[in-house]
Protein backbone atom coordinates (compact mmCIF):
# COMPACT_ATOMS: atom_id res chain seq x y z
CA UNK A 1 0.00 0.00 0.00
CA UNK A 2 1.34 3.44 -0.92
CA UNK A 3 1.07 6.67 1.06
CA UNK A 4 -1.51 7.89 -1.43
CA UNK A 5 -3.65 4.80 -0.95
CA UNK A 6 -3.35 5.23 2.81
CA UNK A 7 -4.42 8.87 2.46
CA UNK A 8 -7.51 7.83 0.47
CA UNK A 9 -8.35 5.13 3.00
CA UNK A 10 -8.08 7.52 5.96
CA UNK A 11 -10.28 10.06 4.13
CA UNK A 12 -12.81 7.35 3.41
CA UNK A 13 -12.90 5.99 6.99
CA UNK A 14 -13.21 9.54 8.31
CA UNK A 15 -16.26 10.31 6.20
CA UNK A 16 -17.89 6.96 6.72
CA UNK A 17 -17.36 6.51 10.46
CA UNK A 18 -17.09 10.07 11.73
CA UNK A 19 -19.16 11.93 9.15
CA UNK A 20 -16.35 14.47 8.88
CA UNK A 21 -13.60 15.12 6.40
CA UNK A 22 -9.99 14.34 7.08
CA UNK A 23 -8.20 17.39 5.70
CA UNK A 24 -4.62 16.68 6.66
CA UNK A 25 -2.00 14.14 5.70
CA UNK A 26 -1.68 10.46 6.43
CA UNK A 27 1.61 8.74 5.76
CA UNK A 28 3.43 5.57 6.66
CA UNK A 29 6.25 5.86 9.14
CA UNK A 30 8.55 2.88 9.21
CA UNK A 31 10.39 4.20 12.26
CA UNK A 32 7.44 3.51 14.54
CA UNK A 33 8.26 0.40 16.51
CA UNK A 34 5.57 -0.72 18.90
CA UNK A 35 2.76 1.73 18.26
CA UNK A 36 0.33 1.20 15.42
CA UNK A 37 0.01 4.85 14.62
CA UNK A 38 0.48 8.37 15.82
CA UNK A 39 -1.52 11.56 15.70
CA UNK A 40 0.72 14.61 15.60
CA UNK A 41 -0.73 17.47 17.65
CA UNK A 42 1.61 19.98 16.02
CA UNK A 43 0.51 19.59 12.40
CA UNK A 44 -2.61 17.37 12.68
CA UNK A 45 -1.09 14.70 10.48
CA UNK A 46 -1.46 10.99 11.07
CA UNK A 47 1.33 8.46 10.80
CA UNK A 48 0.71 4.76 10.50
CA UNK A 49 3.18 2.00 11.28
CA UNK A 50 3.85 0.20 8.02
CA UNK A 51 4.24 -3.11 9.83
CA UNK A 52 0.53 -2.99 10.55
CA UNK A 53 -0.18 -3.53 6.87
CA UNK A 54 2.50 -6.15 6.47
CA UNK A 55 1.70 -8.39 9.40
CA UNK A 56 -2.01 -7.97 9.98
CA UNK A 57 -5.13 -7.92 7.88
CA UNK A 58 -7.11 -4.88 6.81
CA UNK A 59 -9.49 -4.82 9.76
CA UNK A 60 -6.55 -4.21 12.11
CA UNK A 61 -5.37 -1.32 9.96
CA UNK A 62 -8.88 0.19 9.92
CA UNK A 63 -9.07 -0.13 13.73
CA UNK A 64 -5.82 1.79 14.08
CA UNK A 65 -6.91 4.46 11.61
CA UNK A 66 -10.13 4.93 13.59
CA UNK A 67 -8.12 5.26 16.78
CA UNK A 68 -5.92 7.99 15.29
CA UNK A 69 -8.96 9.72 13.79
CA UNK A 70 -10.50 9.90 17.28
CA UNK A 71 -7.46 11.90 18.40
CA UNK A 72 -7.71 13.99 15.25
CA UNK A 73 -11.39 14.93 15.35
CA UNK A 74 -11.49 15.52 19.11
CA UNK A 75 -8.40 17.68 18.97
CA UNK A 76 -9.79 19.76 16.12
CA UNK A 77 -13.08 20.11 18.02
CA UNK A 78 -11.21 21.66 20.93
CA UNK A 79 -10.82 18.65 23.22
CA UNK A 80 -7.51 17.35 24.47
CA UNK A 81 -8.14 14.07 22.71
CA UNK A 82 -6.12 12.15 25.28
CA UNK A 83 -6.71 8.45 25.87
CA UNK A 84 -8.06 8.75 29.40
CA UNK A 85 -10.76 11.35 28.67
CA UNK A 86 -14.45 10.36 28.53
CA UNK A 87 -14.74 12.00 25.09
CA UNK A 88 -12.01 9.79 23.68
CA UNK A 89 -13.38 6.60 25.20
CA UNK A 90 -16.89 7.34 23.99
CA UNK A 91 -15.90 8.22 20.45
CA UNK A 92 -13.55 5.25 20.15
CA UNK A 93 -16.32 2.92 21.24
CA UNK A 94 -18.86 4.54 18.90
CA UNK A 95 -16.71 4.07 15.81
CA UNK A 96 -15.22 0.72 16.84
CA UNK A 97 -11.59 1.81 16.89
CA UNK A 98 -8.92 -0.32 18.48
CA UNK A 99 -7.73 0.57 21.96
CA UNK A 100 -4.25 -0.72 21.41
CA UNK A 101 -2.18 -1.56 18.42
CA UNK A 102 -1.50 -5.27 18.18
CA UNK A 103 2.00 -6.26 19.14
CA UNK A 104 4.28 -6.48 16.18
CA UNK A 105 5.83 -9.88 16.13
CA UNK A 106 8.63 -11.26 14.08
CA UNK A 107 7.33 -13.56 11.39
CA UNK A 108 10.43 -15.73 11.48
CA UNK A 109 12.07 -17.85 14.16
CA UNK A 110 15.44 -18.77 12.76
CA UNK A 111 18.20 -16.78 11.13
CA UNK A 112 20.84 -18.50 9.03
CA UNK A 113 23.93 -16.93 7.61
CA UNK A 114 26.03 -18.08 4.72
CA UNK A 115 29.55 -18.77 5.91
CA UNK A 116 30.94 -17.73 2.53
CA UNK A 117 29.14 -14.59 1.41
CA UNK A 118 27.38 -13.59 4.63
CA UNK A 119 23.88 -13.50 3.14
CA UNK A 120 21.19 -13.90 5.79
CA UNK A 121 18.09 -16.09 5.58
CA UNK A 122 15.06 -15.59 7.85
CA UNK A 123 12.99 -18.72 8.19
CA UNK A 124 9.90 -19.83 10.06
CA UNK A 125 11.11 -23.42 10.14
CA UNK A 126 14.42 -25.02 10.81
CA UNK A 127 16.33 -26.01 7.73
CA UNK A 128 18.75 -28.86 7.33
CA UNK A 129 22.08 -27.14 6.75
CA UNK A 130 23.64 -30.38 5.51
CA UNK A 131 21.10 -30.49 2.70
CA UNK A 132 20.61 -26.83 1.82
CA UNK A 133 23.30 -24.42 0.72
CA UNK A 134 23.31 -20.69 0.10
CA UNK A 135 21.13 -19.82 -2.91
CA UNK A 136 23.58 -17.21 -4.08
CA UNK A 137 27.02 -18.83 -3.75
CA UNK A 138 26.32 -22.43 -2.67
CA UNK A 139 28.26 -21.78 0.56
CA UNK A 140 27.46 -23.54 3.83
CA UNK A 141 24.73 -22.10 6.02
CA UNK A 142 25.08 -21.59 9.74
CA UNK A 143 22.34 -20.99 12.32
CA UNK A 144 23.08 -17.67 14.03
CA UNK A 145 19.80 -16.85 15.83
ZN1 LIG B 1 -3.79 6.98 20.77
ZN1 LIG C 1 26.50 -17.40 0.14
From TrEMBL:
Annotated InterPro entries: SprT-like_domain, SprT_Zn_ribbon
The SprT-like domain, residue ranges: 4-144
Taxonomy, superkingdom: Bacteria
GO terms classed as biological process: response to stress
Name this protein carries in UniProt: Putative metallopeptidase (Zinc) SprT family
UniProt organism field: Lentilactobacillus kosonis
Amino acid sequence: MTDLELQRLVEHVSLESFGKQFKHQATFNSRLRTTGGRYRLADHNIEINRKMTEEFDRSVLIGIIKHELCHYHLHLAGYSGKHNTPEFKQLLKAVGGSRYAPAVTKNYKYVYECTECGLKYHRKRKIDVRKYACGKCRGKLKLIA
